[in-house]
Specification:
single chain; 471 residues; alpha/beta; Aldehyde Dehydrogenase, Chain A, domain 1; Aldehyde Dehydrogenase, Chain A, domain 2; 2 domains; seven-stranded mixed beta sheet; disordered N terminus; binds nicotinamide-adenine-dinucleotide; Ald_DH/histidinol_DH; oxidoreductase; NAD; Aldehyde_DH_dom
């Protein structure tokens, strides 16, 4: 039965029940079976490559190179990394006995959690639906995907890929909006992997709590970048322009706003303007520049810019709109008052506010006064200063002298902290998100039975002795 692309709410219950049965069978699936499944998915993705470029151009005006870099590459890397490592990840991990556990043999076994629900956002709609699916398959789970309704062509294409690769009792996709997500969340999934906003993350976690389903929440927020007095300003400006304006700023780990040492503000702004023109042409009129996803998001970002302007911010470049085309020119702001909306909401658009500082303690205090960000970036030639910033702040992940590169490192966990997320994705961390680490202890000749009641004098002395030597 192919339901991808034309789902009905009435189908989700039966598909879920069939996935439960299949999940039991997959519990003992071998690494070879999981690898074969992942290879099948990879082959189908490559077969649909032209359609993928088309869908993402339609949904977000993404240029082909950016589709390759930010949608295809992460998913293919996840697949190949998992194929290379899944046998090792699945292998029981022996643990040494502690002193009181002499005579036992123990191991940690990664077992599939079971039936997983993957809810994806629209900004990297392909990557953020299929990346978690790769981890779910590697871990031996079945999965239902709910892609975002705001990238409908890509959602339909993912549905076609899923339908070509899987029976619905292993992987199914249901298109739809919040109503579909809500209906899915009513089912007792074993794990919910959600990528999206902190506001909806709260709703998802509350819904998962009804079934005590474990969750991975990949959320967002305001990710700051600090450019200190010693930074290579040209490198900082070039990296930040790329990180901020790729995908029109609609990236969860994009630098949201930049704290720049006051002495460096003027040359930094000049460098940003130079790199903006080089990457995206005058006023962002380059085919490499994406568009805002929906008229509602366009209005939201316009409101943020106009609110800052009305409160006296300087617009160095941009602040130019074309509503019919959902186009907002790359915009650089300074002198933004602290109470402007743009300093409180996640921007998620092509606007970079610059905030000057005199002492490095100022941005550290400002960051610690806000919810913990998904990413925090530092540009500095002073290793001790960079280390101090990282040690004194909290963030999901960080780069020194780079932005967003932490996402592409397959051996690093990717995730937030509190408001920016719970749990981690990618590689082994993604596999673990969809696995339960089960403790298995085999008693061969431990001393435990000697401590059973009746608590005679001898037993009591032995317990006290053990207490003394406990490690
Ligand atoms: P969103 O939270 O509005 O939607 C995400 C998904 O949740 C969509 O599939 C949507 O249909 C669904 N949804 C909406 N309302 C729901 C409800 N009431 N109950 C259940 N599900 C519901 O997010 P978005 O606008 O698609 O994406 C932007 C946000 O996602 C930003 O905050 C961004 O930072 C964050 N994000 C985070 C990551 C990450 O990896 N941490 C990646 C991309 C985006």
């Amino acid at each position: 039965m192919v339901i991808a692309g034309a789902p009905g709410l009435e189908l989700i219950g039966p598909v879920f029940e069939r996935q439960r049965l299949r999940a039991l069978a997959l519990r003992t699936s071998s690494a070879a079976v999981r690898i074969a499944t992942l290879r099948r998915l990879e082959a189908e993705i490559f077969r649909q490559r032209a359609a993928l470029y088309e869908a993402l151009h339609e949904d977000l005006r993404k240029p082909e190179a950016e589709v390759d870099l930010s949608e295809l590459m992460p998913v293919i890397q996840e697949i190949r990394h998992a194929c290379r490592n899944v046998a090792g990840w699945m292998a029981p991990r022996r643990v040494r006995p502690t002193r009181v556990m002499w005579g036992t043999r123990a191991s940690v076994r990664a077992q599939p959690r079971g039936v997983a629900l993957i809810i994806a956002p629209w900004n990297y709609p392909f990557n953020l639906a299929l990346g978690p699916l790769v981890s779910a398959i590697a871990a031996g789970c079945t999965a239902i995907i709910k892609p975002s309704e705001f990238a409908p062509r890509t959602a339909a294409l993912i549905g076609a890929i899923v339908a070509a690769c899987f029976e619905t009792d292993e992987v199914a996709l249901f298109e739809g909006d919040a109503a579909m997500a809500t209906a899915l969340l009513d089912l007792p999934f074993d794990h919910v992997f959600f990528t999206g906003s902190p506001a909806v993350g709260r709703i998802v976690m509350a819904a998962a709590a009804r079934h005590l389903a474990s969750v991975t929440l990949e959320l967002g927020g305001k990710s700051p970048v600090i450019v200190d007095r010693t930074a290579d300003l040209d490198k900082a400006a070039r990296s930040i322009v790329w990180g901020k304006f790729a995908n029109n700023g609609q990236t969860c780990i994009a630098p949201d706003h930049a704290y720049v040492h006051r002495d460096s503000v003027t040359p930094f702004i000049a460098a940003v303007l130079r790199h903006l023109a080089a990457m995206y042409g005058e006023g962002g009129r380059s085919p490499d520049y994406c568009r805002i996803v929906t008229p509602q998001h366009f209005e939201r970002i316009r409101r943020l810019i106009e609110d800052a302007r009305a409160r006296g911010a300087t617009v160095h470049v941009g602040g130019v709109y074309d509503a019919a085309d959902k186009f907002i020119a790359p915009t650089l702001l300074s002198g933004v008052p602290a109470d402007a909306l743009i300093m409180h909401e996640e921007i998620f658009g092509p606007v970079l506010p610059i905030v000057p500082f005199d002492d490095i303690g100022e941005p550290i205090r400002a960051i610690n006064a806000q919810p913990k960000p998904l990413a925090l970036y530092v540009f500095s030639r002073d290793a001790a200063a960079a280390e101090r910033i990282i040690a004194q702040t909290a963030a999901g992940g960080s780069c020194v002298n780079a932005v967003m590169a932490q996402y592409l490192h397959a051996n690093l966990p990717f995730g937030g902290i509190n408001n920016s997320g719970i749990g981690s994705a990618h590689g082994h961390y993604g596999f673990r998100a969809f696995s339960h680490e089960r403790a298995v202890l085999n008693d061969r000749f431990s001393a435990a039975p000697m401590l059973f009641p009746p608590y005679s004098r001898g037993v009591r002395r032995m317990i006290k002795l053990i207490l003394r030597f406990l490690t």
